[in-house]
Fold this protein.
Amino acid sequence: MTNKKVPMRQCVGCREMKAKRELIRVIKTSDNQVLVDATGKKNGRGAYLCPRRECLEKAVKNKGLERSLKTAVPKEIYQDFEKEMEQLGESR
């Protein structure tokens, strides 16, 4: 029996490697739209963030999300991220 490989991604806030399923994905689509990808399967350039407020604050401060997506990130995306984090907190 072989062990399954767990995909790892780096959080753009805290810069720690974590399992892909533990992180929230943000994508930039081909028409330069920035969206929160709840399913993790949409097409586009992706960046990952931990579902913690500290990581979001670090990503905003050091512009990690903008650097990873290679585009400016509107304030609405950061607000969507906060809502997503609240929902994840309630489900755990």
